[in-house]
Automatic annotation (TrEMBL):
Residues 90-117 form a coiled coil. Its main location: membrane. It comes from Pseudodesulfovibrio sediminis. F-type ATPases have 2 components, CF(1) - the catalytic core - and CF(0) - the membrane proton channel. CF(1) has five subunits: alpha(3), beta(3), gamma(1), delta(1), epsilon(1). CF(0) has three main subunits: a, b and c. Pfam families: ATP-synt_DE, ATP-synt_DE_N. Residues 4-82 form the ATP synthase F1 complex delta/epsilon subunit N-terminal domain. Produces ATP from ADP in the presence of a proton gradient across the membrane. This is ATP synthase epsilon chain.
Length: 139
């Protein structure tokens, strides 16, 4: 089967370097999908879950901010933050979700509300990433 190289890096570390069959990622304008031989492409990343297919299995990776670049049959994800589903601490994400929900109830400033919304989105995406990985049998 045709493959493309997926590399995910953050400022701290290389998260992943694998030959995969498909990559779906959360672009800032919505989800996009990349198959082998895709034309060159660049997108900013939002907060959400990237997934890739490899040997009949789907793997999930939480990403938050950064850029995705596609060229020469390689997808490079330069993320501000990224965690494989196996690395996600579910309890920590649940606590972050509770905190964001509590703060949302009392937020007065617009900027505060936006910060809470982003924190809530990160927490919910991490929880979903972990449970999708478990359902797929890859976490
Ligand atoms: P928290 O309030 O729990 O710190 P956060 O969304 O504010 O969550 P980030 O700013 O996105 O955290 O990430 C800070 C660092 O903590 C990153 O290195 C990230 O990988 C790590 N991190 C945050 N939450 C989790 C989690 N639930 N499981 C594993 N690593 C996490």
């Amino acid at each position: 089967m045709a493959t493309l190289k997926l590399e995910i890096v953050t400022p701290d570390r290389k998260v992943l370097s694998e030959d995969v069959e498909y990559v779906g990622a959360p672009g800032i304008m919505g989800e996009f999908g990349i198959l082998p031989s895709h034309v060159p492409f660049l997108s900013a990343l939002g907060i959400g879950n990237l997934h890739y297919n490899q040997n009949g299995k789907t793997h999930y990776v939480f990403v938050s901010g950064g850029f995705a670049e596609v060229s020469n049959n390689q997808v490079t994800i330069l993320a501000e933050v990224a965690e494989m589903a196996t690395e996600i601490d579910h309890d920590r994400a649940s606590k972050a979700k509770e905190r964001a929900e509590q703060r949302a109830a009392t937020a007065k400033e617009k900027i505060e509300a936006a910060r809470n919304q982003a924190a809530l989105k990160r927490a919910v995406s991490r929880i979903n990433c972990k449970s999708s990985g478990k359902t797929a049998g890859t976490c």
